[in-house]
Amino acid sequence: MSTFSMPDLLSYTDVDARLGGVLSAEFEGTGDSPDDPTVLFFDGDLALDGDFLSAVAELRGVDADAHSNGDSDVELIVVTGDLTVDGPIALYEDWPGLYVGGHTRAETLEGGDAEICIHDGTFTHMVYGYYNHGSLAAGVVDTPWVIHFDHHMALSAPGARWVDNLGVCDRDADFVAGKGLGEAFVPEVVDDEGRLDIDAFLNRLRAGLPVLRPGARSARDSAAAALDDQLSRAVAGRADHLDLTGRKLKAFPAEVLRMPWLRTLILDRNPIRELPEEIGTLTGLEHLSVRDCELTALPGSIGDLAGLRVLRVARNSSLDENEVEFTLPAAVGRLSALEELDISELSVRTDAEYEPGQMPPESTRFVLPDTFGDLVGLRKLVADGTNVVFPDSARGLSGVEEVSMSGSPARYLVTFPEVVTTFPNLRRLDLSCNNFDTVPDSLLHLTRLVELDLGGSLGLLRDPLPDLGRLPALRVLGFSGQSSRGPEPGHVFLRELFAMELTGLEELRIDRWRRDGKRRRLEPEHFAGIGTFRRMRTVSLAFNGLEDLPPDFDTLPDLETANLYGNRFPREVRDRITAAHPCARIDFGS
Predict the structure, then answer these.
(1) Residue 552 DSSP label
(2) b/e code 108-138 from CB counts within 10 Å (16+ = b)
(3) Disulfide: which of 75, 82, 331, 402 matches 33 by Cβ 3.0-4.6 Å?
(4) Over the chain, what is the mean pLDDT?
(5) What count of Cα atoms within 13 Å lies in the side-chain half-sphere of residue 352?
């Protein structure tokens, strides 16, 4: 028997105000609804017979099909109390969406394009989220099955079996389409593509019939068994290389500590959260990779790995401001054999907006320990997306030959890391996709530098560039104009570049200096002087919107490859360039 108080039709703004801003806090929007959607507002508990949408339409005296096919005059249904439905709640169209402030009980909770937000709930058969752009958010729900098809779902269902019915999502599912799902479920509920047929699945549940084959093992059980088997074989065979990438480990596998002979241990993409102090007993380790493992620190015993040559700890900073950021212990300085260190993406990302021409905010700083300068064997430092603060001890590290500190739209540098210019044997330096206001003259101290990438980092430059022609070993230069965020660089820096005597330059990347139509147009004269780079073999001038190139481009004697895609060269210009470089591979695009 349905029980209810007659609902009100109110504006979204009015209901949100009445509920103290709950709706605006929980909902991003309601599909393609108007700016101030119409809300069907039930103040108190609501109990309905049969299908939820049909029952709501019946009590309003409106067309039931309109509610179910997205033609309803209501964009959101709000129930402030408990919602009890003795049939399914199935919301597949853009609207109506659903908000329930109390406990929700129903046969199923099914979501498609609509936004659904409930407090908690009990669902007899399943919770199902189907593809597209809706969302399903809840607290803790009691249901035997949670099935998703690449749907945005945020809920806790501790007693449920989870099914990834698309098979491409990185979710800790019990059953995954394409990975043994067809062998686990009875054939009546599996379609020709090896996925659950949701209608057949639900009908079988309603009939009280089993959906799993006898003895069926979940993907989680199979993965655990496979992991146990791999570890057992590794121990028995005294394997010196162990790769456990993406095995969904929740803790460091203790069996590994029985393998002191290990030379390589890779635990990437496992939320293990910490390494044990006993890691220091694996004294044979030469390569340790714990990227994206939700670590906050390394144990001090890491310094006992005297033979470690490669240490990768990238992507271990939390984006949750309430959690501790990753730190390197001072014991890292005892790794005298270390040749490669990867500390990428250990800065919390920057989301703040800024106006063009303003200095963007820095990402949080990642402070290296004072003992970093003791890493005299270090050859390669990778710190992409990390705002590194180097200790004074790092200055003058003579072993370092390669440094990568590129940025991204969310993590980037605004201050040039001048300490790297004190590494006398540096050969490769990648500082692309940052937002520097100056490039210091100290860069010219790197007389052995072969490759330099400043692409995408020049949009906020206010001072002239140092004369890169004074880098005698420079062979490869990245000079892209497109910035990860912020304004693009002024054309004056192109003129400065082509006025330099880069007699040894063999490869030049100088693309994307005209990202959109809002920029001042690029002309051939902005590239005049490129012909003085007589040793040029490879050049990219892609996506610059050019209609021609300066005449001296045609004089380059050794050109082998030219990427000219994304320009607007007429046929006669293409023919001229091709004739000037008959042996070169030239890509004009379509």
Answers:
(1) G
(2) bbbbbbbbbbbbebebebbbbbbebebbbbb
(3) 75
(4) 89
(5) 12
User: Which secondary-structure segment (H or E) carries 492?
Assistant: helix 492-498
Neighbours of 154 (CB within 10 A): 10
pLDDT tens, residue by residue, 293-352: 999 999 999 999 999 999 999 999 654 444 557 889 999 999 999 999 999 998 865 544
pLDDT digits (tens, 9 = 90+) for 446-501: 999 999 999 999 888 888 999 999 999 999 999 998 754 556 788 889 999 999 99
The Cα 106–Cα 21 span in angstroms is: 27
Q: Is 162 helix (H, G, I), strand (E, B) or coil?
A: strand
Q: How many CB atoms lie within 10 A of CB 298?
A: 22
Q: Token pair of 572, please?
A: 């006669």
Q: Which of 514, 512, 511, 550 has the alpha carbon at shortest distance from 531? A: 550
Q: Residue 398's CB: how many other CB atoms inside 10 A?
A: 12
Residue 485 CB neighbours (<10 A) = 19
Rounded CA gap, 357 and 380, in Å?
34
The rounded distance, in Å, linking the Cα atoms of 100 and 121 is 10
- Tokens for 81? 């109390």
Q: How many helices (H) and strands (E) does the chain have?
A: 9, 29
How far apart CA 408 and CA 360 sit, in angstroms, is 13
Residues 56 and 41: their CA atoms lie apart, in Å, by 11
pTM above 0.85, yes or no: no
Asked, as a colleague might, if the bond just before 570 is cis with ω within 30 of 0, I would say no
Q: Could you tell me whether strands 145-149 and 115-130 are parallel, antiparallel, or unpaired per DSSP bridges?
A: parallel
Beta strands in 83-144 (DSSP E): 83-85, 89-91, 97-111, 115-130, 135-142
What is the per-residue DSSP string for 310-371? EEE--S---S-TTSPPPB--GGGGG-TT--EEE-TT-SPPP-----TTSPPPPPPEEEPPGG
List Cβ neighbours of 510 (8 Å cut-off, separation of 6 or more).
479, 480, 481, 494, 497, 527, 539, 540, 541, 544
The CA-based diameter of the chain, rounded to the nearest angstrom, is: 88
Q: Give 3-state DSSP helix, strand, coil % of the chain, rounded to 5.
A: 20, 20, 55
Q: For residue 13, give every residue at least 6 positions away whose Cβ sits within 8 Å of its Cβ, in sequence order, or none.
A: 36
Residues ≥6 apart with Cβ < 8 Å to 414 = 359, 360, 361, 362, 434, 435, 436, 437, 460
Helix, strand or coil, per DSSP, at residue 534:
coil
d(CA 93, CA 100): 18
Buried-state track 545-561, b at ≥16 Cβ within 10 A, e below 16: bbebbbebbeebeebbe
Cβ–Cβ contacts within 10 Å for residue 334, how many? 19
Task: With H, G, I as helix, E, B as strand and everything else as coil, classify residue 171.
Answer: coil
Query: Which DSSP helix (H) or strand (E) runs through 225?
Result: helix 219-236
Contacts of 267 (CB under 8 A, 6+ apart): 244, 245, 249, 252, 289, 290, 293
DSSP string, 426-471: --EEE--S---S---GGGGG-TT--EEE-TT--TT--SPPP-GGG-
